[in-house]
Amino acid sequence: MNETDVVIIGAGHNGLTCAAYLAMAGLRVKVVERRKVAGGAAVTEEFHPGFRNSVAAYTVSLLNPQIISDLKLSDHGLRIVERRAQNFLPAPDGSYLLTGEGRTRQSLAKLSERDADRIEAFNRELEEIADVLRALVLRAPPNIVEGFGAGAIREALNVLGTAGILRRLSLPQQRSLLDLFTRSAGEMLDDVFENDLVKALYGFDAIVGNYASPYAAGSAYVMLHHAFGEVNGKKGVWGHAIGGMGAISQAMASAAAGHGAGIELDAGVREVIVERDRAVGIVLDNGEIIRARYIASSVNPKLLYTRLLPADALPAAFLDRIRNWRNGSGTFRMNVALNALPSFTALPGDGDHLSAGIILGPSLAYMDRAWQDARTHGWSREPVVEVLIPSTLDDTLCPPGKHVASLFCQHVAPELPGGRSWDDHREEVADLMVATVDKYAPGFAASVVGRQVLSPLDLERQFGLLGGDIFHGALSLNQLFSARPMLGHADYRGPLRGLYHCGAGAHPGGGVTGAPGHNAARVILGDHRALFG
Ligand SMILES: Cc1cc2nc3c(=O)[nH]c(=O)nc-3n(C[C@H](O)[C@H](O)[C@H](O)COP(=O)(O)OP(=O)(O)OC[C@H]3O[C@@H](n4cnc5c(N)ncnc54)[C@H](O)[C@@H]3O)c2cc1C
Predict the structure, then answer these.
(1) φ, ψ dihedrals at 160, nearest 5°
(2) How far is the CA of 237 from the centre of ligand 1 (A)?
(3) Which atom of ligand 1 has the smallest separation from the CA of 502?
(4) Range 18-43 burial, b when 16+ CB lie within 10 A, else e
(5) In a 3-state reduction of DSSP, which class is residue 396?
(6) Closest ligand 1 atom to the C-alpha of 229?
(7) Do the beta carbons of residue 198 and residue 116 sit within 8 Å?
(8) What share of the chain is helix, strand, coil (3-state, %, to 5)?
(9) Site residues for ligand 1, CB cut-off 6 Å
């Protein structure tokens, strides 16, 4: 039996961030990870001989700059580069939109002068609200507490701090904030723009990892969630970590280990040990027991509470609610090895557009139909696919002259209707995704020399992402902010003493941000200092 100050369940990037901050503060930390590799959904793996890629998360923006700086991730080898163009949206009629610094307006003007005149103001409005999110991501949201005591005083101060941030917004900005938290992205975009491709550009962000129509209430928040990032100080920009997303988690692991944290791989947690309403340790799959003062979990909250904790150790009302935690982001992920770059009918040949996020989903109506189809059929027969070819920016991933691409496909059912299994439909749907790209870039299918296919079921099996949910729980209003993972537990503390949440199931939610790990570490350290000075 082992004993330490903190055990962290899961070496995803949030678990590693939490470990690094706690170890830096002098606590003895042990991270235990089920897989043979650290990084969770932010990993780089060889998926075909000689071809490596970020096999799950594939693009970086949301990673918090404060965390990059605090953990000195650049000293641990992290280098993030911007895409040469941000997004490329080809349409079936041969038109296209290409966005990025210095090019968006000009490209959009060819499609709609009216929209080209409006896009800057729209971006500014989004950016102003994204600034509020940025100010809120590295702090615990106000937590609802019952009764009056130290906790209530602490939360009253927290509410004042949060209100102070919101008060920076003018009244019109507060109205925009309300819209972005409650309305559908589709309605908001229809109010501003007329062109389908520009609406699809923002609409895609509203359905990424969100198994919903872009016209579903609340989808505007998901769009906003994808806008609060930055790359190398440039707000709203997406980039690439050289070596893939695994370079981020490897840098975090190196920072954590450098401060003394131990990271044990191939060490799945079977059970959290509870004694007298306190989490006091864990049992690994191999039977090893590790006791600790604090247990921080970075796994999906529903997984933690329904599979790793004995039901009778939890308050019944808490357990009832967490059983209804909504998972399932409706995504299907492929990695493909290519012997040639694709050539798109709308913009043939090589060029900066091949380093962009290439969105195949040319209108909001198309995205809405894709969702409707997935609801009844199990997947959309005309799916929405984002193609990213990181080897256009990074020559470490595959042999010279070859390429790797990520296909991030939206609108497949987390569980297939009619009791069918993803095990029986994985390859058929993968063929459909490749054929969808081939429609826009003829010859693409023939250039594929190897592929890895991850259905929602595979995402659950490989990464512990229940229902394949990339965010550890839907980003719906009832699962956000003070309600993530539940009203009364937004302060990173679970319902048992000594138990904390440090993964994407806590505020500010999914994405490679590091923020839940950072925020949980702060709470654990606060509790530790309150006890031991
Ligand atoms: C297909 C896909 C594409 C995505 N694309 C992007 C993107 O491009 N950009 C972006 O910012 N975000 C993206 N995301 C979202 C982002 O990757 C996740 O929200 C984020 O990585 C979650 O990090 P985490 O550390 O909280 O959890 P995870 O990364 O899920 O880590 C949790 C860890 O816990 C481990 N674990 C599970 N059960 C146990 C157990 N019983 N015992 C021990 N360990 C256990 C898991 O193996 C895992 O390593 C994507 C996610 C997916 C799946």
Answers:
(1) -60, -40
(2) 21
(3) 26
(4) bbbbbbbeebbbbbbbbbebbbbbbb
(5) coil
(6) 11
(7) no
(8) 40, 20, 40
(9) 9-15, 32-35, 40-42, 56-59, 62, 268-269, 298-299, 308, 331, 333, 408, 459, 463-465, 470-472, 503-504, 510-512
First vs last Cα of the chain: how many Å apart? 28
**DSSP codes of every residue in 249-266:** HHHHHHHHHHTT-EEESS
For ligand 1, mutation pick of 30, 31, 33 (most atoms within 8 Å of CB): 33
Angle CA 48–51–54, to nearest 5: 100
Q: How far apart are CA 162 and CA 198, in angstroms?
A: 33
Q: Tell me which of 32, 34, 68, 459 to substitute to probe ligand 1's pocket, judged by most ligand atoms within 8 Å of the beta carbon.
A: 34
Packing angle between helix 196-207 and helix 185-192, nearest 10 degrees? Answer: 160
Q: What is the pLDDT along the chain (533 residues), one digit of tens a residue?
A: 589 999 999 999 999 999 999 999 999 999 999 999 999 999 999 999 999 999 999 999 999 999 999 999 999 999 999 999 999 999 999 999 999 999 999 999 999 999 999 999 999 999 999 999 899 999 999 998 877 777 788 888 888 888 888 888 999 999 999 999 999 999 999 999 999 999 999 999 999 999 999 999 999 999 999 999 999 999 999 999 999 999 999 999 999 999 999 999 999 999 999 999 999 999 999 999 999 999 999 999 999 999 999 999 999 999 999 999 999 899 999 999 999 999 999 999 999 999 999 999 999 999 999 999 999 999 999 999 999 999 999 999 999 999 999 999 999 999 999 999 999 999 999 999 999 999 999 999 999 999 999 999 999 999 999 999 999 999 999 999 999 999 999 999 999 999 999 999 999 999 999 999 999 999 999 999 999 88
Task: Give the residue carrying structure tokens 């906790």.
Answer: 151
The answer to whether 297 and 500 have CB atoms below 8 angstroms apart is: yes
CA angle 106–112–116, rounded 5-degree value? 50
How does DSSP classify residue 306? I
Alpha helices in 39-112, H assignment, sequence order: 65-70, 104-109
Token look-up 């595979």 returns 458
Alpha helices in 441-514, H assignment, sequence order = 444-447, 456-463
Instruction: Output the six-digit token pair for 173.
Output: 């900005």
Is residue 144 within 8 Å of 487, Cβ to Cβ?
yes
Q: Which atom of ligand 1 is nearest to the CA of 512?
A: 11
Q: Which of 301, 287, 268 is nearest to 33 (CA)?
A: 268
Instruction: Read off the pTM.
Output: 0.97
377 Ramachandran zone, left/alpha/beta (phi>0; psi -120 to 50): alpha
Residue with tokens 């100010």: 135
Q: 206 with 217: CB under 8 angstroms?
A: no
Best residue for ligand 1 mutational test, from 237, 299, 359 (most atoms within 8 Å of Cβ): 299
Residue whose entry in the numeric block shows the structure tokens 């953990």: 71
Residues comprising the chain, all counted? 533
